[in-house]
Design a protein that fits this description.
CATH architecture of the largest domain: Sandwich
Number of helices: 6
CATH topology of the largest domain: Immunoglobulin-like
Largest sheet: 5 strands, mixed
Number of domains: 3
Helix content: 40-55%
CATH superfamily of the largest domain: Immunoglobulins
Strand order of the largest sheet: 2-8-7-4-5
Strand content: 15-25%
Structural class: alpha+beta
CATH class of the largest domain: Mainly Beta
C-alpha cells in the first residue's frame, strides 16, 4: 500500500529580498553599491524594496540595473533577471508600445510646429492688413472722369461732369462740393463761359492725399 506525503512548497523568494540579503551578506552599503555600479541610490532602494514602479520607465534601463547589481553581488544574472521579469519588474511598462515615447515626441514636435505656423500666419495676416490700411490712408483715392474729355468743344454754356471715385471720398469741382452715390459715381452740372474753361476735379480723403484731374473745355 502506497503512502502519499504532501509537502507544502515554499513560495519563491522575491528578487528584491534576494538582492538585499546578498548585499548585506557581502557587508556592502547602498553608498558603496552606488559608487561601484553608478546606479543612483534611489533606484537601489527601489529595487530592494520591490518598488519597481519607481525605476526608470525604459525597459533597457531596468534590465541594465538588475544585471549590474547581480554582477556586483556575484549572483547568477540570467536566473535573477528572469525572476525580476516574472515578479512585476516591468508590469507598469509592459503595455507601453516600444514606439510610444518616440510617437509622443513626434506628436509634440508636430504640435509645436503647427502652433508656430499658426502664430507666423497670424502675424503675417496682421502685417498685411496693417499695410493695406496704411496704404488706403496714404494713397490718393481713385478718380476717373468719364465725361467730358480734355479739349471737349461744347455748343452750350452748361455741361455735365460724370465720373467715379472710391467710397468715403470728398469730391469738389472748381471748389464746389459734389456728393458721390453709394457706389462712388458722381454727376455735376456746371456753368461755363465762352472760350476756354478749366475744370478742376479734386478727390480727397480725410487723412490721405489728393487726386485731381483737369479738363479744358472750349465753349463756342
Amino acid at each position: 500500500m502506497s503512502i502519499f506525503c504532501y509537502k507544502e512548497l515554499e513560495a519563491p523568494q522575491r528578487i528584491c529580498f534576494l538582492i538585499k540579503n546578498a548585499r548585506i551578506e557581502k557587508d556592502l552599503t547602498l553608498e558603496q553599491v552606488e559608487e561601484k555600479t553608478r546606479i543612483p541610490k534611489k533606484y537601489l532602494v527601489a529595487i530592494e524594496e520591490c518598488k519597481f514602479n519607481l525605476l526608470p520607465k525604459a525597459k533597457s534601463h531596468r534590465i541594465a540595473y538588475i544585471k549590474k547589481y547581480c554582477e556586483l553581488l556575484g549572483l547568477e544574472e540570467h536566473q535573477h533577471l528572469e525572476k525580476f521579469l516574472q515578479q512585476e519588474g516591468l508590469e507598469d511598462i509592459d503595455q507601453i508600445h516600444p514606439h510610444t515615447e518616440v510617437n509622443k515626441l513626434y506628436q509634440k514636435s508636430i504640435s509645436i510646429w503647427a502652433r508656430n505656423i499658426v502664430i507666423i500666419l497670424t502675424v503675417l495676416c496682421f502685417a498685411l492688413y496693417l499695410t493695406w490700411q496704411i496704404k488706403g490712408i496714404l494713397q490718393p483715392p481713385k478718380l476717373e472722369v468719364y465725361f467730358p474729355q480734355d479739349g471737349y468743344v461744347s455748343e452750350t454754356s452748361h455741361i455735365k461732369i460724370e465720373g467715379f471715385t472710391e467710397k468715403e471720398t470728398h469730391i469738389t469741382i472748381n471748389g464746389k462740393e459734389v456728393k458721390p452715390d453709394e457706389q462712388g459715381n458722381f454727376i455735376a452740372e456746371i456753368d461755363m463761359t465762352k472760350g476756354i474753361n478749366t475744370i478742376n476735379i479734386i478727390a480727397s480723403k480725410k487723412h490721405g492725399k489728393q487726386n485731381n484731374i483737369i479738363r479744358n473745355i472750349i465753349v463756342k
